[in-house]
Amino acid sequence: MEALSQHKVKSVLAIEMAFCGKKMELVHQSIQLTQQN
Predict the structure, then answer these.
(1) How far apart are CA 7 and CA 3, in angstroms?
(2) Which domain of life is it from (predicted)?
């Protein structure tokens, strides 16, 4: 049971990291767009 909950926490963290990375990518793209104008 303990190992299962640890695995769940790790997968949740992985999802959060991926989501955060996507957000940072979008922010970076929008910054580049505003600099071009």
Answers:
(1) 6
(2) Eukaryota
> Three-class SS of residue 36?
helix
- For the chain, the domains span 1-37
* CA–CA gap between residue 26 and residue 19 (Å, rounded): 11
- What is the spatial distance between Cα 11 and Cα 1, in angstroms, rounded to a whole number? 15
Instruction: Dig out the tokens for 29 from the structure.
Output: 């793209």
The mean predicted confidence, pLDDT, of the chain is 91
Spacing of C-alpha 23 from chain mean position: 6
| Amino acid identity at 1 | M
Instruction: Tell me how far apart the alpha carbons of residues 33 and 8 are, in angstroms, rounded to a whole number.
Output: 38
